[in-house]
Amino acid sequence: MIFTVTLLRRAALLLAVCLLPVLPVFATIDDAHSFAMEAAIPFVKKGFIVREDYWNGEVKSGQRLMVKHQMFKGNEYAFWIGCPEDDAEFELTVLDEKGVEIALDFTASQYFASMRVNPPRSGTYTVIFSVSSKSSKSLYWALAYGYR
Fold first, then answer.
1. How many structural domains compose the chain?
2. Contact 126, 66 (CB under 8 A)
3. Tens digit of pLDDT for each residue in 36-45?
4. What pTM did the predictor assign?
5. CATH number for the domain including 40?
């Protein structure tokens, strides 16, 4: 009897180990934030300070979102957006109060994108962004920022 229970436990453990590679991998908001932080690495090496607070959520593919952000003349800012989808495409722009884009540069890779801005005056700016995917209808995203 004891031998049978031990054998059944071993068989169940072996079955569980064999099924691990077959189980689907699910992305999370934490994964999206990790990719946004990966985008920040080159900026940190150039002296940017990463803020602890960030925005995140789940959005329909291609849906545009916006956040308002206070920026000060004399500081340079960077925004980093991450998404754990393999085929993610990003849009990211920053507008002043008149709707004029103030971006210095935009770069994107497979899991993240970054935008660097230098505000011409202190004020509230609008950060507009979207994440799109052909393979997913709903996407996790995280938008972080820093300054120097």
1. 1
2. yes
3. 999 999 999 9
4. 0.80
5. 2.60.120.380
Q: Are 48 and 78 in contact (CB under 8 A)?
A: yes
Is residue 10, in this structure, part of any structural domain at all? no
* d(C-alpha 56, C-alpha 13), whole Å: 37
Residue 7 lies in a domain: no
Q: How far apart are CA 124 and CA 113, in angstroms?
A: 22
Q: How many CB atoms lie within 10 A of CB 45?
A: 8
Structural domain harbouring 125: 26-147
d(CA 110, CA 22): 24
Cα separation, 83 vs 110, in Å, equals: 9
CA distances for 63 relative to 66, 74, 101, angstroms: 10, 32, 19
- Read off the pLDDT of residues 71-119 as tens digits, 9 standing for 90 and up: 999 999 999 999 999 999 999 999 999 999 997 899 999 999 999 999 9
Q: Within a domain: residue 8? A: no
